Amino acid sequence: MPEWAWTAVYLGAAGLVLTMMLWPTPSTGKRLLKKWQVADPTEAQVTDAVRYLRKRRLLYPWIYLAGAFGPDFKPEMTTHLVIVVLGGALLAELIALRPPRSAQRVASLTPRRLADVASTAVLVLYLVIVLGVLVHLCLEQQWQRAGWLVLSAAAVAVITWAAVARPASGDLRVDMALRTRSVHVSAGLGAAVAWALVPGKWEFIGILVWIAMAHTKPQRAKINQ
Question: How far is CA 183 from the centre of its chain?
Answer without folding.
Answer: 7
